């Protein structure tokens, strides 16, 4: 996230630039219908807090300033903004009009004031740009984005006169039956002329069912023209009030992300079962197979095959790697690496070029050098493994002594036979070999063999004697 991206380079507040755009994002609502301990605007859509979708749309206008009206009693909102925009406190939640009225005199500029509700993450930047452009052209007091919905329930309705001219926005709670049948709704996305907005805001009243200061009532107080701009795609104005709408937004956003990836050259065999977060990057000719989720800040290279049934979280994957039925978290995978099926790579795993991790392997905080293989049933924790090492099936690092984590070092070209246990801290030198079933408790010098198991005995004729004994026992009455 760019810090304070909306401000751009240093700009003096000269009279010429006073007409610059001010964006106000309203994010202080209680979000009662979410039934959540988390502020509504911090709920995630495609991995991003809802509020940050509004901030991204705002950035597209290259505004002079972006103000975010927040509720100081809600934790985490300021932190999520990560220095972007300037917060304005609304201590009591008395409605959207009241929220906008918290903007102080110094910021009540005369130029265009774009108001966004932070619970509408699907708004496209181009739509907002178009609204601003049309507003300027129309020289209106306010331009509002409207949409015609099959299900207008919950939205303020746009009431028009016989000639089609805009008359009012009526909130659902206050609407008559006839008004409720109207399918054209208010998006909550407006561009005001600052000159007209601020004086009119002083006149707002709360004489309605909710007892709130509705921003929507301001259109009655404005002297100038009210311009409405319809948006074709009704999804864009989806306001999230409860978690069913949150899921709806997630679905729309997911499809947009997948469409964009497919158009950029990524094959997604089944978009219906593929989930990719907004900030993920995927290279050309990579194929994503079904039931795969790629989330957080993951970056996937070109010509990879990911999935089926794979989860990648905050992980990077180099070109030409293949990952099947595995879970990766905060892992760095280089090029031409193969992983899976059924392996789990946890935080701090680094796999260099050409590494092979096979099945049922868990790796944590471990670096594995180029060309090395961990093909089956291993656990490597807090280890540093060199290049071209083979780790035999069932080998593990005993990295935890009950008090702290200890490191295992395995040198280049070491050959670790099956079922080796490294009791860390311990070091296996380069070109060293361990015999199967060895418990490595001491450092092993380079090129040596470590063997630590009871010597094998041979008991000749044993099986025949055992079977005879068994037969005799069964015959006994
Ligand atoms: C609002 C509109 C409605 C519109 C709909 C679009 C009003 C009165 N109604 O209704 O016409 O169709 O959005 O989605 O504006 N907020 C504050 N402080 C407050 C109250 C709200 O900052 O005191 C913020 C919320 O965080 C939210 C936004 O304003 O982001 C909208 O509030 P919400 O209560 O969700 O309004 P709706 O009932 O959805
Ligand atoms: Ca809402």
Strand segment tally: 41
Q: What is the general shape?
A: elongated
Report the end-to-end length measured between terminal Cα atoms.
83 Å
How would a crystallographer describe the biggest sheet?
9 strands, parallel
Supply the helix-strand structural class: alpha/beta
Strand order of the largest sheet: 14-17-20-23-26-29-32-35-38
Percent of residues in helical segments? Answer: 10-25%
Nearest-angstrom radius of gyration?
A: 32 Å
Give average pLDDT, whole number.
95
Question: Low-confidence parts lasting 5 or more residues at pLDDT below 50?
Answer: 1-18
Bound molecule types: uridine-diphosphate-N-acetylglucosamine, calcium ion
Tally of helical segments: 9
How much strand?
A: 25-35%
What's the quick description here?
This protein is of the alpha/beta class and 477 residues long. The protein is 18% helix and 29% strand.
Observed structural traits:
binds uridine-diphosphate-N-acetylglucosamine, elongated, disordered N terminus, alpha/beta, seven-stranded mixed β-sheet, 477 residues, 9 helices, nine-stranded parallel β-sheet
Please render the helix and strand layout as text.
Elements: E1 22-26, E2 44-45, E3 48-49, H1 50-59, E4 65-70, H2 77-81, E5 86-89, H3 96-100, E6 112-117, H4 125-138, E7 142-148, E8 157-160, E9 166-170, H5 177-180, E10 184-193, H6 194-201, H7 218-221, E11 226-230, H8 243-263, E12 267-268, E13 274-276, E14 281-282, E15 287-288, E16 292-295, E17 299-300, E18 305-306, E19 311-313, E20 316-317, E21 322-323, E22 326-329, E23 331-333, E24 338-339, E25 343-345, E26 349-351, E27 356-359, E28 362-364, E29 367-368, E30 373-376, E31 379-381, E32 383-385, E33 390-391, E34 396-398, E35 408-410, E36 415-416, E37 421-423, E38 426-428, E39 433-434, E40 439-440, E41 449-450, H9 462-475
Parallel strand pairs: 1-4, 1-6, 4-5, 7-11, 12-15, 13-16, 14-17, 15-18, 16-19, 17-20, 18-21, 19-22, 20-23, 21-24, 22-25, 23-26, 24-27, 25-28, 26-29, 27-30, 28-31, 29-32, 32-35, 33-36, 34-37, 35-38, 36-39, 37-40, 39-41
Antiparallel strand pairs: 2-3, 6-10, 7-10, 8-9
Residues 26-29, 69, 90, 93-96, 98-99, 117-120, 155-156, 169, 171, 185-188, 214-216, 239, 241 line the site of uridine-diphosphate-N-acetylglucosamine.
């Amino acid at each position: 996230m760019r810090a304070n991206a909306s401000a751009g380079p240093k700009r003096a507040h000269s009279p010429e630039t006073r007409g610059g755009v001010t964006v106000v994002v309203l994010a202080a609502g209680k979000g009662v219908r979410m039934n959540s301990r988390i502020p509504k605007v911090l709920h995630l859509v495609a991995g991003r807090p809802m509020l940050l979708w509004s901030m991204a749309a705002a950035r597209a206008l290259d505004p002079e300033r972006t103000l975010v009206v927040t509720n100081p009693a809600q934790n985490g909102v300021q932190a999520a903004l990560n220095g972007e925009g300037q917060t304005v406190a609304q201590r009591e939640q008395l409605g959207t009009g009241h929220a906008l009225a918290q903007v102080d005199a110094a910021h009540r500029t005369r130029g265009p004031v774009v108001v966004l509700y932070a619970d509408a993450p699907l708004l496209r930047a181009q739509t907002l740009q178009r609204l601003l452009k049309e507003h300027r052209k129309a020289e209106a007091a306010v331009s509002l984005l409207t949409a015609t919905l099959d299900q207008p329930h919950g939205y303020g309705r746009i009431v028009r006169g016989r000639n089609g001219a805009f008359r009012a926005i009526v909130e659902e709670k206050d609407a008559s039956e006839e008004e409720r049948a109207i399918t054209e709704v208010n998006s909550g996305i407006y561009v005001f002329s600052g000159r007209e907005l601020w004086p009119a805001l002083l006149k707002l009243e709360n004489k309605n069912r909710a007892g709130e200061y509705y921003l929507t009532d301001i259109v009655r107080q404005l002297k100038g023209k009210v311009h409405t701009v319809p948006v074709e795609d009704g999804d864009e104005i989806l306001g999230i009030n409860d978690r069913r709408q949150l899921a709806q937004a997630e679905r729309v956003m997911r499809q947009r992300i997948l469409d964009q990836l497919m158009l950029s050259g990524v094959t997604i065999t089944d978009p219906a079962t593929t989930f990719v977060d907004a900030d993920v990057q995927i290279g050309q000719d990579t194929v994503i197979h079904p039931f795969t989720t790629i989330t957080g800040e993951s970056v996937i290279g070109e010509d990879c095959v990911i999935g089926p049934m794979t989860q990648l979280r905050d992980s990077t994957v180099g070109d030409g790697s293949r990952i099947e039925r595995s879970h990766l978290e905060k892992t760095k995978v280089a090029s031409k690496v193969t992983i899976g099926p059924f392996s789990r790579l946890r935080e701090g795993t680094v796999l260099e070029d050409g590494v092979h991790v096979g099945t049922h392997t868990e790796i944590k905080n471990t670096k594995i050098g180029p060309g090395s293989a961990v093909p089956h049933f291993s656990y490597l924790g807090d280890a540093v493994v060199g290049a071209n090492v083979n780790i035999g099936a069932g080998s593990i690092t005993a990295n935890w002594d009950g008090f702290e984590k200890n490191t295992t070092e395995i040198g280049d070209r070491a050959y670790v036979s099956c079922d080796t246990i490294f009791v860390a801290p311990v070091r296996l030198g380069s070109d060293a070999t361990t015999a199967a079933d060895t418990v490595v408790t001491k450092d092993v010098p380079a090129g040596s063999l470590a063997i630590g198991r009871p010597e094998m005995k041979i008991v000749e004729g044993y099986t025949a004697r055992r079977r005879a004994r068994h037969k005799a026992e069964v015959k006994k009455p």
